[in-house]
Structure formats: C-alpha cells, structure tokens
Predict the 3D structure of the following.
Amino acid sequence: MGIIAMTIGNTIRNIGFWTIDTIKGGNIKKHYQDILHVMDDPFSKKSIKNRNNLLDKLLDHSVKTVPFYSQYERTNFKKLPIISKDLILNDFDNFKSNKFKARELHKVSTSGSTGIPFLLFINQNKRNRNSADTLYFFKKVGYNIGDRLYYFRLWNGERKSELRRILQNIVKVNISKMTDDFINDLLNQLRKDPSPKCVIAIASSLETLCKYIDKNDVKNLNVNIKSFIANSEALNDYTKESIEKNFNATIFSRYSNEEQGIIAQQKPDNNNFFQINWASYFVEIIHMDEDIPAKPGEMGRIIVTDLFNYSMPLIRYDTGDIGIMELINNEPVLTKVEGRKMDLIYDAAGDLISSYCVYPVMDEYNHLIKQYQFIQIGKKEYLIKLNIDHEFIHNKKLVKNFKAILGSDAKVTIEFVNEIPELSSGKRKKVMNTFNQNYA
C-alpha cells in the first residue's frame, strides 16, 4: 500500500472516529475542547475558576453519595485524608457512589506492579475524559487519531484497552520475549511499513531494542517514526540518546497510571520536565513521612485527585510514586518522577538517595549488559544482578563506583543470572528494595 493510500486511510479513520462521537452526542469532543482551553493556560483566572468548579462539584457529589466521604466537610479539601490502595481495598464498598448502577460502570484493573492488584469502577463520563486526554497528549507529540501506532506491551488475549477503542490503527507488539530474532523481525516490519507512525512502549522494551541496534551496528533505520512515548518506567539517558540518534525521532516520557489515566507528559519544547494534566487532575507533592506539603524542589509523594471519576472518587490518592514539583515559567511542573515509594533506596548511613543515581553508573556498561537489577537487601547490603552474554571483567570497578555513592562500608555483591524476571505488567524493575527498614 502506498503512502497516499495510507494517508487517505488515516484520514478516513479520523473522520470516522469523530463522526461516531458526534452521533453519540459529541461527548469526547466536548472534553477535548475543554482540555485544550485549560491546558493552553492552566493558571489563568478562567482556568483556575473552571478547575475549582470541577473540584467543588466532585466534593459535593462525594460527601452526598459516597459513604467514606459522608463524614467529611466538602469545603475543606486539604483536610480530607490521603487515601491509598490498601485503604480502598479494605473498605471497597464504602468508596463506591450510590448514584450509579453496576451496569452503568466500567471496570479498570491494575496489574499489581506494586504487589497489590487493584480494581475499581469508572463511570462513562470519566471514560470519555480519558479518551480525550489520550487524544490531547498524543497530539502534543505529533500523533493524530487514525495514524499508525506501534504499541509495545504485554498483550494477553484480547483484553480491550482504551487506546484500542479510540485508535483503530494499532500494531500490537508483544514484548513478552524480546529475543534477537524477534527484534530483527520487528525492524524488518518497520522498514516495510512506510506510513508515518508513533511508538508507545514500556521504557525497558525500548532499551532492549536500542541495545540490539547498537550491538549489531544496525544502519539505515529510516522507518518514518514521528515520535516515541515511553511510559510505565523511568527513561534512562542511554535509551533516550540511542532512540534520537538511531531513529531521528524525539522521545517523550509519560507519567500515567491505570486507575486514573494520564497525569503528566514531557513537553515537545522542553522535555526536561513533565507538564501536569491540570485539566483532569489536581496534583500535590506531599512530604515523605508527614501529610504536609513538600517544599518546592523537595522529593515527596505524588498525590492525585481525579476530577472526573464520580463512581469511585479518588480524592487525594497516594499513587505510590514519588517526585519533585517546581515552578517553571510560572507553572507548577514535575521536574522528577521516580518509581514506587516501596522501592526507594538508602545509603549505608540510612539516608534516602535517588534511584536515578543507579542509572549513570550502569550506563557505562550498557554495551556489555543485556539486563541488570539493583536491589537493596539489607541496611548496608546491596545486590546487583547482571544478565550478560560474555565474560564480565569489571566487577571491582563496578563495586567501587557504587561504594562511592552508598558509602565505603556498603557491602555490594554481584550475581550473574540468565534472566531478570518481568512483572505481570511487562515491566522489569531496575531498582528494588526488599529490606524492611524502619526508616523506609
């Protein structure tokens, strides 16, 4: 199929999507227009008024129809409790609004990457909002509905995803076994597909792709990819630089979760920070150990209020992630988003250190290592798992590099393995903490 025919096909899909939405009442388009207006200037008087109205309506609804919130005053948002997955799971029915019937709702489930599988319900208006958010943030990176999308994830059966419902031009790339043969076939498939396209992928799957390209010195990757979106995991510098060099395309990190949606995404004009989706969420950074606001530039827990899920309102929901919020160009943005709070690491003195300190050390050995995992297993004990093809002669140097970060009395052990196991979500945790510390 030629480029012209593909372009026509994409246009038809685009028109078809909006036509169906119009027939159904134009709800996604209304949400999309609202997101455009707010995100154009999130802190204008008009946008602030709009978001405050959304928050007031949500709180009104919650105290009237959700048993858990009936004991609280609607007007005092900052005094509402911070809630967690554990709390919701242990009191599930009391978080459900009595306004909705079961047949009106849609199930959303998470894969249990935190160790806690999680299910909740969303109403149709929230589902429409998620669709509009998806369209908006794709558009920001040059992708239009109807274009070809290569979606790297674990595809188990025919589980219907939000993206699949919206975008009917998806190529499903199952990352369960990214062997050399699999990647070679994938690159050949991309070469044979001249259509303009976008890739969305778990970050570690892109790293595996890049390592194959570098190891095999693959050339001529002119495959017409407009942009990459990395989600679910932190994007390291090696993968970012390799993608931009080999594919001549920009890569963006997206911060989202399955229970709420797209919370933030890096901006095209400055991908050193994440623009927060203020149109659909209220985001706070809360102190690591106390329920008080963190200072600007201080690491804290990412707390998100979903302004549109009325069936099970998630108000001041602890995502389990940590990050830093700062003011850039008079707009609060996330300058750092890290993994789960349960996987924070500490140096030998017991001081919290960023998991990002691991990546630069390991980047030096990217050309030698297929996979790695850094685990804190004791107060001063750390384990580095390495999956390699050939002999590794840099043990002493690697241990020395980590002791410079963790402390001279840190005990660092290297273990060689055949595989770093995937989680059920398809992620591979690069940094973990299996030690139950009092200060963790």
